[in-house]
Amino acid sequence: MDIKRWLSRREGDWQELKTLLQRLEQQGLAGLSAQEIRRLASLYRVVSGDLARARTFGLSPVLVQDLQNLTSRSYSQIYQGSRRQEWQAIGRFYRWGLPHVLRQTWGYWVAAAGIFALGGLIGWWYGWRDSSFQSLLLPPYLIAQVRERGELWTGSILGNEPWAASNIMVNNLSVSFRAVAGGITGGLLTTYFMFFNGLLIGVIGALVGEYGLAYPFWAFVAPHGALELPAIFFAGGAGLLIGRALLFPGRWGRGTALQIYGAQAAQLVYGIVPLLVIAGVIEGFFSPSEVIPLALKYLVGLALFTNLIWYGLWEPPATGSPSSASGQLSQESVQ
Question: Which residue spans traverse the membrane (predicted)?
């Protein structure tokens, strides 16, 4: 290879890349046009090849170092910018996109909540009328603790808060993902999960009510339940969306319906994860605390639930269309 000729041909590109990088580092993306950004990415690939050649032919260490610096700076700007854009897209989704999706899919997660509530009513009714029904669904130690010692089992969390919080998060995420995955059965398993979990809550409500522990029990549930239960309903709604696409694809056909409803279900899943993480922390550290007044726990639960409703009704400004945030994540989900 004619080194001098190669150097004279390549130096122009190196200098151009250096100039673009200096402007990008000083002014940010706003300092470059779209064409210049594309040119910078192209030059980065070219100079990376030049660096490989310089190393292969044992050229000057100074030259190799200069090319290494250029490629390192280019990589940092290109991929940090990409990650920055990804984080910005995630921020837009949680700020505007998720409320938009919640409003779009409200019929499905409300249906999931209705199935849960029906299970809860049936569980409470039969649990209240027949104590043997409680034994069919609840573990004996839990029933014995309430009946014989007149106390709740929630005190076992105290002293093990970090471990309990992490286990609660994992369990709630597992329940939610099973509800979503149940959509592949046409929504039948999703319906079962919603109904059965409601049944359990209803039976527990009957048990604690029968022995005068309803007030402290629901005070325990209120702070984390204000986020945890809606998250489970959203998961159920996601499962029902998938079931709808399979059973009633409509005019699009099953494949297209799965893309459309599956994208909405995926966005609901993105939404439930932070809710369940926050709820797990609250349930591990705040809900079982004996030093916090019960009335305050009810107030915290009410405040969290009220803010969640306000968030779901949040309308983006006219310039910030939710479709840009939710649509970007939907396209990634479809792909």
Answer: 106-127, 175-195, 200-221, 227-247, 268-286, 292-314
